[in-house]
Design goal:
Helix content: over 70%
Strand content: under 5%
Order of helices and strands: HHHH
Number of helices: 4
């Protein structure tokens, strides 16, 4: 029987973030060999916490906005607006943190953030595919009306 409900969401989020923190820690260590592992890990955890909190806040806002729309269909245009809004807001929070933490220019921090964005697009695709194959697909509630 596939993993379902809140348990599935918690395992998914925790496993996703734990692996991501490990990968980002290694990436920071490779990009800045003078940084120690604890410093790199703390930056990875900090950006992960920001991403989780922003994800919850942004999606709550977006879904409330979406519920007020006459047409609630998730078109490609709406999904693009969601992605741009989410990533733009996340970058607004993480770029200053990365610049301060690594003591680099905002431009270097933005490039690092863009690199993370590209990485996370691929990572998310692969992680979700593997997770779904390992734990099964989530049940979809039926909607009437």
């Amino acid at each position: 029987m596939p993993l379902q409900g809140l348990r599935r969401k918690l395992i998914h989020a925790c496993l996703y973030e734990a692996i991501a923190i490990g990968i980002v820690t290694v990436a920071v260590r490779l990009a800045r060999p003078e940084a120690d592992t604890a410093e790199a890990s703390l930056l990875a955890v900090s950006t992960s916490v920001i991403a989780l909190l922003w994800n919850m806040a942004f999606n709550t806002w977006f879904e409330a906005w979406e519920a007020r729309q006459a047409d609630r269909t998730r078109t490609a245009r709406r999904r693009l607006a969601h992605a741009i809004g989410f990533e733009g807001g996340l970058a607004a929070m993480t770029v200053p943190l990365i610049a301060w933490w690594l003591q680099v220019s905002w431009w270097a921090a933005l490039l690092a953030d863009l690199g993370l964005l590209v990485f996370f697009l691929g990572y998310t695709l692969v992680f979700n595919w593997v997770f779904d194959h390992a734990f099964g697909l989530p049940a979809h509630p039926t909607h009437s009306g």
